[in-house]
Design goal:
Layout lengths: L1 H5 L2 E7 L5 E7 L9 E6 L3 H8 L2 E7 L5 E11 L2 H15 L18 E15 L7 E4 L3
Antiparallel strand pairs: 1-2, 1-4, 3-6, 4-5, 5-6, 6-7
């Protein structure tokens, strides 16, 4: 889906244990909203606490048409330490390639302040206009 791939910033909504929504922009390095998505973050954040308490996550991003956007509903999960350590450096160097030869960048240590949120999509909807009844189901829940 080209509109997802071209969206460098998407919005992630997480929910507290009581169901309160928390929205924030996130950097998008993913290619397909129908596949597993991952988002590097810091461990001591509200989104991490929300996912520990309630794994429902919404990812929204614009459509190519004005007044339309996509909403991906999925389950969030925190990656294990091995995945975080293997992938965090790649993510950092993607955005800071000039830093790859810096001696001070710790490559072989555990960094508990780093986390990666994985989102497994359950459904994708196209939202047209401002009314919820205008939603078009694109992918059934599984």
């Amino acid at each position: 889906m080209e509109s997802f791939k071209s969206a460098k910033i998407i919005f992630m909504t997480t929910f507290s244990a009581a169901g309160q929504e928390h929205n924030r922009p996130m950097l998008n390095l993913n290619d397909d909203p129908y596949e597993f998505m991952w988002f590097p973050t810091e461990t001591n954040t509200r989104k991490v606490e929300d996912i520990k308490a309630n794994n429902k996550v919404l990812i929204t991003f614009p459509s190519v048409k004005q007044e339309e956007y996509y909403e991906v509903e999925g389950n969030g999960k925190l990656a294990d330490r091995e995945f975080v350590e293997e992938n965090w450096l790649w993510w950092y160097l993607y955005w800071h390639p000039d830093q790859k030869d810096r001696f001070w960048f710790p490559k072989d240590e555990d960094h508990p302040e780093r986390s990666i949120i994985g989102v497994y999509p359950n459904s994708v909807k196209l939202i047209k206009g401002k009314k919820m009844e205008d939603m078009v189901e694109l992918m059934p829940k599984f």
